[in-house]
Amino acid sequence: MIRMHRQVSTWTWYIAALIIFFTILLATATSLAIPTLQINIPSGQYVDYMPGSPFNEGMLIVSDAPFSLQAFYAPENKKSSTLSSWDFYLSCALMNLDGTKVSSLPDPFAISINNLSYPSDSFSYGKPQGLPPHGVFDTYYIQIAFDFEPTDLTHQGIFNVQNPSEGGKPGYIHDFNINAQGLGKDYGLVFDLYAYNQNYNTILFAPFSHNAALISSYNTADLISHDQGDIVPLPDTLFLLAIGLMGIWGIRIGIKRKKDTSILKT
Description:
By secondary structure, this protein is α+β, with helices and mostly antiparallel strands. The protein has three helices and 14 strands. The chain folds into two domains: about 1-30 and about 235-265; about 35-220, no CATH class. Strands 2, 3, 5, 8, 9, 12, 13 and 14 form an eight-stranded mixed beta sheet that branches. Strands 1, 4, 6, 7, 10 and 11 form a six-stranded antiparallel beta sheet that branches. Strand 12 (about 185-195) and strand 13 (about 205) form a beta hairpin. Helix 1 (about 1-30) runs antiparallel to helix 3. The longest helix has about 30 residues, at about 235-265.
């Protein structure tokens, strides 16, 4: 009887180990998933927290203009027909560097995106249609319509801007050249990436933690960064790990009951 109990225990713990392994494997895949839409700034730094800023999430920060900005699109279906089913936009929103809301347009200024000039009177107040409230919105902003072309396809170039070591996914990369040298020193720019379906009743947008900003007055010492190395587990990850731990706890209770029963029988 005791020998049989040991055999059951060995197999039970073997199964428990498999549960742990697959739970962690699934949790890792969930927590490190590459978003469908992201913004990348090759010369930027990912920052988790900006003291005095209106942001509740991290993002890529660049402090000097001009700079290059990349829109990442990693759809499940890589066929070109997927590109034609969405209308893509990059918004550029004005922010006060002191963290307060922008209540009026500053002195006339102009920014340049891909050599096209956008003067201050082309900015509208509010937020893009369907985009959830976040960050600096409502504020003055412009939105630039663009298309991902088949020539933008990359087979291994898409990575997680929050953790660049996780990458190698196929997708599309569209480049923008941003020049905001005409913007006053007390202001910054925040960029959002989003897309609408053909009926404009569905919006797809980059996670706010995968947006980007031009913040010229912040110094590196003012920024608390994880150097693009740490990933905070998503709630789904914690849930999956909890299931695994509960399963192990249940198995141990079952073993204890079997052991107690075998002792009574003897």
